[in-house]
């Protein structure tokens, strides 16, 4: 692939294309399957129970750590730069939206869409050339914006990432 400098117009076109793809992806990939559609419909028609979910909120805090309500736990499944598939694609950063797609109706094995909202110039390697990023730096920023589709499964009671997945992939804008 020939490397060419990216002008402002082309870069903005990439951003616009990325925003369009992101809007399409986050508008409900579940509509692609009848079962997911039916599950969504049943969720929308749920009537709130009078005696139901007992959530104990956390108090406001200035701690620089993850604080969870009593009875909740978290597991890190993937971090920035982790390999997510056989091709060697890597997990992005600045995640803000996730959606789970069950495989064969399983609540313990499925695909997880993770949106990577934006890039951070601090993660760009190397100096700018003059006042501009190089084409390689821009490609890296565009690669890290978009999303990851990762295959996850519960093993021994913990969620795990399948790094050899044939289904996992990156959605990016280069």
UniProtKB/TrEMBL annotation:
<keyword id="KW-0812">Transmembrane</keyword>
<feature type="transmembrane region" description="Helical">
    <location>
        <begin position="12"/>
        <end position="32"/>
    </location>
</feature>
<protein>
    <recommendedName>
        <fullName>Tat pathway signal sequence domain protein</fullName>
    </recommendedName>
</protein>
<dbReference type="InterPro" id="IPR008557">
    <property type="entry name" value="PhoX"/>
</dbReference>
<dbReference type="InterPro" id="IPR006311">
    <property type="entry name" value="TAT_signal"/>
</dbReference>
<keyword id="KW-1133">Transmembrane helix</keyword>
<dbReference type="Pfam" id="PF05787">
    <property type="entry name" value="PhoX"/>
</dbReference>
<keyword id="KW-0472">Membrane</keyword>
<dbReference type="InterPro" id="IPR019546">
    <property type="entry name" value="TAT_signal_bac_arc"/>
</dbReference>
